[in-house]
TrEMBL record:
CDD domains: TrHb2_PhHbO-like_O
Stated name of the protein: Globin
Keyword Translocase among record annotations: no
Family matches, as Pfam families: Bac_globin
Protein family membership: Belongs to the truncated hemoglobin family. Group II subfamily.
Originating organism: Methylosinus sporium
């Protein structure tokens, strides 16, 4: 592996902003089409345009691309931004079904795809705000 290879970010490997845009579009298409996603689709605005734009910025930065999300919106504060919505195991699983399908369709690199699935699963579980969420238990 040469020096250039080793400095590649997930943003580079996935295919840059074009691939992230495709991933987000596919994710929300799945949310519109998958029967198990009806509940989470209903808590989104009818017009997904603004939501898509934010997720595209966020994922680009999360994967090592441009820092536009932070520059425009500050710290992600994902849990705070999602607290107004009831997110339990069913919502987590529906979100993951939409994202897994999008990753399978858009991300060709198997190692990156599997890594992203694991990371998204952790993130989706962390965003749960139901009473059984282990992340909220104080020991």
């Amino acid at each position: 592996m040469d020096a250039v290879e080793s400095t590649k970010t997930a943003f580079d490997v996935i295919g840059g902003q074009d691939a992230i845009d495709r991933l987000v579009e596919t994710f929300y298409r799945n949310m519109d089409e998958l029967p198990q996603a009806r509940g989470i689709r209903a808590i989104h605005a009818a017009d997904l345009g603004p939501t898509k734009a934010v997720l595209k910025l966020y994922l680009a930065e999360w994967l090592g691309g441009p820092k536009s999300y932070s520059e425009q919106r500050g710290h992600p504060r994902l849990r705070m931004r999602h607290m107004g919505f009831a997110i339990g195991p069913a919502e987590r699983d529906a979100w993951m079904a939409c994202m897994t399908g999008a990753l399978d369709e858009v991300v060709d690199d198997v190692r990156l795809r599997d890594s992203l699935k694991q990371n998204f699963a952790k993130l989706a579980d962390w965003l749960r705000n139901d009473p059984d969420n282990q992340h909220d238990k104080h020991h």
